[in-house]
Amino acid sequence: MAVVSTPATLERAVPAIDNAEVLRIRNDFPVLNQLVNGQPLVYLDSGATSQNPASVIEAEQEFYEQRNAAVHRGAHHLAVEATEAFEDARQTIADFIGADYEETIWTSNATEGLNLLSYALSNAGLWAAQGRGDRGLKELALNPGDEIVVTEMEHHANLIPWQELAFRTGATLRYIPIADDGSLRMDQAAAIIGARTKVLAFTHASNVLGIINPVTELTALGHSAGALVVLDACQSAPHLPLNVKELGVDFAVFSGHKMLAPTGIGVLYGRQELLDILPPFLTGGSMITTVTMERAEYLPAPQRFEAGTQRISQAVAMAAAANYLTETGLERIHAWEAELGQRMVSGLESIPGIRVLGPAAGKERIGLAAFDVEGVHAHDVGQFLDSRGIAVRVGHHCAQPLHRRLGLTATTRASAYLYNTTDDVDRFLEAVAGVRAYFRA
């Protein structure tokens, strides 16, 4: 049996995932065992929202049945147990990404995490101007003439918050362009990232192109310019081993609903020395030390950024999801999804009238493929596939500038996960092959 390399924490090679194991994994996901339009469901939309294994569903249910209470607020038995479960979940997620406990902040999703960070940086300027907070705030504050750098392939969640931060502070937003194959123009990145760059924000893996960006190289460029480096890990944390310390980024965000967890829960990672001096974004209860009628003093991270009643059951369930992925093996998951991704791309490229975005077959990508069908709108493609029990994503995938750069308004995207088989991909390819004839394109 083939083997794949494993993280350094594992001392021996483990078997690669194969179709037989995937069929066993599928039994853990209740929603997958159903018919859609009379056909067995083929779920290829995990890039938008993944499905939940029974262990995750049960973890959230068990919290409500056994220990539902507000955290950090009560001395009674249920409150203590709820707080322990909530904070144990934080430690699990910190371990999952190679972070420290104090560096792991709960958010509603990655979008909130990016907005939290952009507003905290806005407040850094306000606090510094008033002589409030740590003296290091002045170095974090953005001013007219400063620059924020993103890439042309960003999801709107990692673009619009930075547009608005530039608007609020007078900074300038710049971007690293892509080549025709979707790869970043790294030859231009070195010229764009410079002495004026205060923030460099980019995606680890594109939700449209499937390309995995050179994080280490980009981070080195950002840090050499003295910039804060922000990583969108939404399409990487669920699918491949992620160690934020080894990558060297200053901040990272990802969402639970893309990694087998419920909706309404996400994570912001930040280096502790930065989090402890950044002003909070949301304010209220549970994140303060002392309050008078005139002012408040705030706790250090992570509570500094967690005002109000938190997403307790969702956090517990997200920890269960992280455990499920860890027990299965992120290296193994990544290798299996890469195999499915190559199968999708090579199959799509063989169908006349299909244009696949991103790296060609044989080049590294995560397990997704966005494509255009000549003469057929993406929404029609999606409905055609749905009639055959195949769930995919259609539209601009919250990446309008990227689609515009590639001369498109919308595409169809198939995205695989650990519960997809090669048969799922083959059913998908067989259906796509019939799209143009069906619509007489």
TrEMBL record:
Catalytic activity: (sulfur carrier)-H + L-cysteine = (sulfur carrier)-SH + L-alanine
Cofactor: pyridoxal 5'-phosphate
Keyword Transit peptide recorded: no
Entry-linked CDD domains: SufS_like
Protein name: Cysteine desulfurase
Enzyme Commission designation: 2.8.1.7
Residue spans crossing the bilayer: none
Organism: Pseudarthrobacter enclensis
Function, in words: Catalyzes the removal of elemental sulfur and selenium atoms from L-cysteine, L-cystine, L-selenocysteine, and L-selenocystine to produce L-alanine.
Entry's Gene Ontology molecular function annotations: cysteine desulfurase activity; selenocysteine lyase activity
